[in-house]
């Protein structure tokens, strides 16, 4: 198709891009466009984030403030909570959460509220892209009708695409713009506009046949991980019972140059994708009479892992003639993965909840999260502070649980100061050489 004015403006860096949702997905995207000399307006309902961005400050641990300050000073980045300014942008990229409801059903409340806030300010020529993870059909079933209610025809007036985010917070090997970008459009014209929008910053664009293919692709990527992690978690429980080191088994299997990809066990799934995405597909599949038993079984295994860790801690305390009730337990790692401050869906909260229910006295240590902020899911833990890393503090606990293996940890000191360590991450390998101090879980 012939370039439209919108595509020309993007290619000539005259376009203004609006990004809605300035979290772990939206903020890196904002900075990627600004780094290419493209003006960006960041939209968020959190006034604290807006204020920090306008000052050139960062609120995400692995994103340096210097990058934000540089974009603000160059007048390539501004931020606002005023959705009326949607009319000023050439493209709108939606990066809002898509959590699960109480019964593992999709909660598209953020997506619906966002498109309803955006729709009154849409104008002809704009591109609208959804990046939030969701079930196949969301773009066409939720966004398209709300846009066309305004009298704008998708594919002619407004160009609607779906492009799943592929962020991996804190991963130094992959900058977000280096990861191939999947793009699916409602129409061929929509796809062409989506390719132009993302081609301005991403090195590789992977066009697919439809928004549904793009939506399903994101689910496949994370279900693949969920199922394989569920498998290795189940194998870990069997290996523990047999007295076999599952980590040594995985290391040995990984020497095979074909037919094997290593996955690693843990205390449960975390992050905003893997614990959630499989249930989006299982929910949608029921509409078509499909029961995704394999996916659901993996989900059940992964969701049960915090209970398994609690069981292993209970066994270890019993060996020392101690009950869980009244014991002082330190959880090391609130973030769901190493070396980030991202605690979304972290299994650590489930551990803390269960230990507290059993009467234990719970503390945590995480150098990336000095205090637990208010959250919708774990409001009762808000305000709890990470304990200082001091010998007197560590020696005072009956058991230490390593839930996340941050590089900043001084594990040599931990081994010196504690006689009861339950390691869920293989942070301390060669456990047999540590005099029975370390137990796997």
Structure, explained:
With 441 residues, the chain is α/β, with parallel strands linked by helices. It folds into two domains: 5-209, NAD(P)-binding Rossmann-like Domain (Rossmann fold, 3-Layer(aba) Sandwich), CATH 3.40.50.720; 223-440, 3-Layer(aba) Sandwich (Rossmann fold). It has 14 helices and 13 strands. It has helices spanning 5-11, 26-35, 47-54, 65-73, 109-118, 138-148, 188-199, 211-242, 246-253, 277-286, 293-319, 347-357, 391-395, 411-417, and strands spanning 16-20, 39-43, 77-80, 91-94, 127-130, 159-162, 181-185, 205-208, 328-332, 361-365, 399-402, 421-423, 438-440. The strands form two sheets. An eight-stranded mixed β-sheet has the order 3-2-1-4-5-6-7-8, sandwiched between helices. It has a five-stranded parallel β-sheet with strand order 10-9-11-12-13, covered by helices on one side. Helix 5 (109-118) links the parallel strand 4 (91-94) and strand 5. Helix 1 (5-11) packs parallel to helix 7, helix 8 runs parallel beside helix 11 (293-319) and helix 11 (293-319) crosses helix 12 (347-357). The chain is globular, with a radius of gyration of 24 Å. The model has no long low-confidence stretch (mean pLDDT 94).
């Amino acid at each position: 198709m012939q370039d439209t004015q919108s595509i020309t403006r993007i290619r000539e860096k005259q376009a203004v891009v609006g990004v809605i949702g300035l979290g772990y997905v939206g903020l890196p995207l904002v900075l990627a466009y600004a780094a290419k000399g493209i003006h960006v307006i960041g939209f968020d309902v959190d006034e604290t984030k807006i204020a920090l961005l306008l000052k050139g400050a960062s609120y995400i641990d692995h994103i340096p403030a210097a990058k934000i300050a540089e974009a603000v000073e160059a007048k390539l980045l501004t931020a606002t909570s005023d959705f009326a300014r949607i009319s000023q942008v050439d493209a709108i990229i939606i990066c809002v959460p898509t959590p699960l409801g109480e019964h593992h059903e999709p909660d598209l409340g953020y997506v619906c509220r966002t498109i309803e806030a955006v729709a009154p300010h849409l104008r002809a020529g704009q591109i609208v892209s959804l990046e939030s993870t969701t079930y196949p059909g969301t773009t066409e079933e939720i966004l398209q009708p709300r846009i066309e209610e305004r009298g704008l025809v998708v594919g002619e007036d407004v160009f609607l695409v779906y492009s799943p985010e592929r962020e991996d917070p804190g991963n130094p090997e992959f900058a977000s713009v280096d990861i191939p970008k999947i793009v699916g459009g409602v129409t061929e014209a929509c796809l062409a506009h989506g390719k132009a929008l993302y081609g301005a910053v991403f090195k590789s664009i992977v066009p697919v046949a439809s928004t549904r293919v793009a939506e399903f692709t994101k689910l496949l990527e994370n279900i693949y991980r969920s199922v394989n992690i569920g498998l290795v978690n189940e194998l870990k429980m069997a290996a523990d019972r047999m007295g076999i080191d599952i980590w040594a088994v995985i290391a040995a299997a990984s020497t095979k140059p074909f037919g094997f990809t290593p996955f690693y066990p843990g205390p449960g799934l975390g992050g905003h994708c893997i614990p959630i995405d499989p249930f989006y597909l299982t929910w949608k599949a029921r509409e078509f009479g499909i029961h995704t038993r394999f996916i659901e079984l993996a989900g059940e295994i992964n969701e049960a892992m915090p209970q398994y860790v609690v069981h292993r801690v209970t066994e270890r305390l019993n060996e020392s003639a101690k009950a869980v009730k009244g014991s002082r337990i330190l959880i090391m790692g609130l973030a769901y993965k190493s070396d980030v401050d991202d605690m979304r869906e972290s299994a650590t909260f489930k551990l803390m909840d269960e230990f507290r229910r059993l009467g234990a006295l719970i503390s945590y240590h995480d150098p990336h999260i000095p205090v637990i902020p208010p959250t919708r899911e774990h409001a009762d833990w808000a305000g709890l502070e990470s304990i200082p890393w001091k010998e007197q503090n560590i020696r005072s606990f009956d058991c230490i649980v390593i839930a996340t293996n941050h590089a900043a940890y001084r594990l040599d000191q931990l081994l010196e100061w504690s006689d009861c360590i339950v390691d869920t991450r293989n942070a301390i390998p060669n456990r047999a050489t540590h005099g029975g101090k370390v137990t796997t879980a």
